[in-house]
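ARCHIVE CARD
SHELF: 3
SLOT: left
DATA:
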Amino acid sequence: MAHRSNPPIKYTKLFINNEFVDAVSKKTFPVLNPATGKKIADIAEADKEDVNKAVAAAKAAFERNSEWRTMSPASRGELILKLADLMKRDKEYLAALESLDNGKTYKNALHDVGFSIDVLKYYAGYCDKIHGSTIPSDGNFMTMTIKEPVGVVGQIIPWNYPLGMVAWKWAPALATGCTVVLKPAEQTPLTALVLAALAKEAGFPKGVVNVLPGYGPTAGGAIVQHPGINKVAFTGSTEVGNKIMEGVGQSNLKRVSLELGGKSPLVIFDDVDVDRAVEIAYGACFSNHGQNCCAGSRTYVQAGIYDEFVKKAAEKAKRTKVGDPFAEDTVQGPQVNQEMLDKVLRLIESGKKEGAHLQTGGCRKGNEGYFVEPTVFSDVKDDMTIAREEIFGPVQSILKFETLEEVIKRANDTTYGLAAGGLTNNITTALAYAKSVRAGSVWVNCYHAFSPQAPFGGFKQSGIGRELGEEGLKEYLELKTVSIKV
């Protein structure tokens, strides 16, 4: 292949009914390299008419006697496994393209490809294990339940894990027998288009998978409003999640699953090894350049170790190598675009103005690309903007606490509830915290402990429904009850 940092751009068009096609309007939009701010390619821009075409293809593929609907569950699983194998074959190209388009380091992109393959393999194994039950009902009846695919699914994914989010969305949808119209984020559509080509190569029938790059208000809005779509799955901001709920209510009451924003607490008790706690907290906050919906961006540290933790956390952040995502020693690449750079810098300024103590960072790094210095604030109060708003950048806010009861109340004082972490060597403390914190995932003595088998999703305004695990299948299934008079 070409040099890793310059992968060829093979696909720039919409993928509808197993073909790459221009947008009906012939419009395109530019995709930029966040490390340089320069254009990578012009991509076909989907709009309402393109969504109509894709939904028609997906509906045809979902017809009762179609190739896809009459395929055995085991054969469906084999197709998903074939897609996973093709991704493994092309993993270096996929990782290079992801890094170029998104700005994440190449080694992190390689990890994302690997996890995506694992998710596909996990759900491939479920294809022939989705079954209902028989129920001993009153009277002379035989009653059973049947689980059926929900139908045509619209899927709208974010830019922070472009390739991973395709796998999280496609795998359970395809395992259950749905057909898919996917809109990748306009900032990062390149790997989704490659996966579309690989799905065709794997042998998925026409119309089962469709990929429409475009903008949220137009292409995304058309998916949400389309009466031919039976469910919409979205990962992104809570603000957009609210709009999707409104749109669904105004259209056909399609089913919805939402994985939204977070402001996750990581609570560090004073019985832990400080150096290890600093490492875990660093990963929790700065992973993927802070562009992570479950980032542990509120770091609560117990008073007994607070000063030592702050000092070591600042030193750790200061040592971070920021720069070219393809360089072997780079730990942090750029933010995804100018808009996110501006947002992160604005929130950093609010921290300074509101009285938080800037320990390190706090500025843009360099003049080219969208790089931010890893930033650490201490003496942060719960009512400060940096402790309330989702920053989505490399900013760690360190808050002090005294007791377990106090910190549980403070940790839960948020509209979000996606994730939470706790570091302690006391099993009673760990269990009390895990039981009391209001979050969909709680990680004890670790953070970001994802696996394909473990359900993921949020409480409160962090979302509706779950992805991954057996729970993830339920979002794509309808339950039918059949009663037969005997």
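SLOT: right
DATA:
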Amino acid sequence: MESFKELSWFVGAFRASNPDSMCVLERHDSEHFKRMFLGFAACKYGFTFCRPILFVDGTFLKSTHNGCLLSACAKDGNQGLYPLCLAVVDSENYDNWYWFMEQLKDFLEDGRVLVFVSDRHDGLLQAVKQIFPSSPHSHCLVHLKENLKKRFGGLDNSKKKYLVNLFNLCAYAPTVREFEKLLNKLKKEGGVKVAAFLDTLDNQHWCHAYFPGKRYGELSSNLVECFNNWIKKERSLPITLLFDKIRLKIMEQMSTRRSASMKWKGVICPIMEKKFKGLFNVSKTWAISRSSDDLYEVRCDPSVSVNISSWSCSYGEWQINSFPCAHAFCALKREGKNLNDYVDHYYSVDAFHNTYSKSINHVPTIWKDVSVGSDANVLLPPLCNKRPPGRPRTECIPSTGVKSRKITCGRCGQVGRHNRARCKEPLQH
């Protein structure tokens, strides 16, 4: 409760030290906390040098008053986690997602067409369609795989693994022809239940072949799960400490990556440079024929054509990832081209430097008034999401008619609901 009383001070102090950032605090008419949005100006500036993809998700908080944390993250040029903004709400529902997307739109002021990747929460999907009508939405492939596995009743593990891998190939198929071929095979091998599940999915939201936007090969929202795990300890803190500790973590991460990147000698980020080594191993046995100054045929299985002037490959991977595929790599090496000139600028070291060029300012408490929290009109805790008193139950309440099995403890010999490992009974000598 004291933390909620200090939240108004934190909002004022954050706005004063980070004037270009966005902090929106809403309260009920009864002065109880409703929800709060926090967006960092340094992250907003850096996001303009990242790929226009946002990974959004919500996770539960573990403090006394519960609640839910909504977040939007991106990826930097070195494939690293790049938190952009967050919000604390009472629950993950349509109203809160709509409000979060409204704040996100006002905060970004980004003229680019964004791509959203999420786990298909209904409220989130509706909010994105209404607030960002021109932005395509991508479903998380990992989430779809988990739903698909529920249709595998009665199948052995090897068959399940085969079908999941086939589903994965469908999602990553770069062309419509390849996708339809794999999809028909999956429906035939999986049976009626798998075919029914696939019919419920809109191909525009989960596979490369039909996706209307550009998502640079990203098919999973695991990045946001990494963010949720990154702030695992902070999720148990009171509300003011929660926001401040997350601010400190992001502030320190930006400073650390800024310093580390100053030592990089290459043109593109190290993670992307490593990909070139893998491409060499894949394509070193392929033969290549030149058709014109820019057009080449790469003879592999199957053979494909590469146009280096338009950054395109008939197989489609170069266009999807904006990063040379193995076929393009083979053609570029044949002509002695500089590979770095054919990589999207989002993967460059210069873009990475710009991403972390700004800093999140400190919010010192040295000038904090000692009377903060003593006013009767300060912010009060939420109305309806407070945990009940007492410790949470460790055992389920049995349903009517269910008989629980009695256990004989091997240490004290008593019949009850504990065993030797959990026995706390005193022993008589």
